[in-house]
Amino acid sequence: MRTNVCCWVTFFMIVVFAQDVKTRRRQIWGSVDDETSPLPQPAFRDTPDRVTFRQGQMAKLECSVESLGTKKVIWRRKSDPNPLTIGRRTFVDDERISVEHVPLGPDWHLIIKQVRLDDDGVYECQISSTDRDLRRYVFLTVKQSDNVLHLGPEINITGKTYVEKNQKIRLVCNATGADHSPDSLDWFLNGQKLATDVEKKVFIQMQVSLTDKTISSILEVEEADMDDAGIYVCRTSDLQIASTRVDVLNADTNNVKRGTEKDASGDKSDGTQSRQVKIDHGGNNNQAERNMISFCTTIILFLLSTILTNVHHMLPT
Questions:
Q1: In the chain, what are the helix, strand and coil shares in percent, each to the nearest 5?
Q2: pLDDT tens for residues 263-316?
Q3: FRET partner for 131 with CA separation of 20 to 30 A, picked from 59, 147, 282, 314?
Q4: What kind and span of H or E run contains 245?
């Protein structure tokens, strides 16, 4: 009996002590429900929703989020479901686009360098969540800059205008469109359309840049022959045309040219004739010397003979 009474007294004291601890805990920390309440949801700060920049400037579209937690901020154009950026990573092949963010800070501003007229439109700053309300729109207006030079369509051909036979002909044609890059570009030689031909060693490569509104085509003719000389024309789908003339030089021609072997042999023969003339002149000089010696000898003998004759007459008989 005494044992049961002790057990009930101990149980009652434990219950009273637990209730007292609970009461004190509520007084210090608040209710237990406050401890188990969910984390605050992300929310947008007030930032400008309409911005205007001139062409060529750096555009900044502001977006600030409080209590982002582990979620991500996504930028995209409203007209395009594909993201421009997710967090600090860029998902488009455009070096002009980036995100300005300070670690642990609330700002996630979209930066567009050298903003263009086609960047004009509505942009969306979205928080990665199933709640479609966690997004806000920023209207970007791009005005024409007074310093921008308006350039119309342009086309040009670059490359050597002459090559040696069996060398490579390489021409590059660049064309720029007004609103977008031309759809295609064709090559012609003397009025005949060219295409890639492995047997004839003719190769055509084409590249298109949507950002620069240009199309580029490279024409290569391996081991050029005399038939590959002529007028080369490149023409775009919007009928822009450029042309250049390419000459193929035949280094194996039989015509006598300055500096060729025949010319050198002629120089050698001229040198030989000059030496022969010099030798002939030398022979003539030697003959004159011999004649002079013979003449002098005859005079001397004549004088000696005259002296001896006079001496003989002067002696007594």
A1: 30, 35, 35
A2: 444 444 455 444 444 444 455 566 777 777 776 677 777 666 666 666 555 555
A3: 59
A4: strand 241-249
How far is the C-alpha of 3 from the C-alpha of 176, rounded, in Å?
103
Check residue 144 and give its pLDDT.
87
* Cβ atoms within 10 Å, residue 106: 17
Note the CATH number of domain 43-143. Answer: 2.60.40.10
CA angle 151, 156, 160 (to 5 degrees): 150
pLDDT tens, position by position, 214-273:
899 999 999 999 999 999 999 998 888 999 999 999 877 654 444 444 444 444 445 544
Q: What is the domain partition of the chain in residue ranges?
A: 43-143, 154-249
Determine the Cα–Cα distance for residues 269 and 274; give it in Å rounded to an integer.
9
3-state secondary structure 153-185: CEEEEEECCEEECCCCEEEEEEEECCCCCCCCE
CA distances from 151 to 102, 179, 213 (A): 40, 10, 12
- Rounded to whole angstroms, what are the CA distances from 196 to 25, 193, 242, 245? 85, 10, 20, 20
Instruction: Report if pTM > 0.70.
Output: no
Span 6-18, pLDDT tens digits: 555 555 566 555 5
Measured CA to CA, the distance from residue 242 to residue 155 in angstroms comes to 6
d(CA 149, CA 137): 32
Find out whether 94 and 116 touch, Cβ atoms under 8 Å.
no
CATH superfamily of 154-249: Immunoglobulins (2.60.40.10)
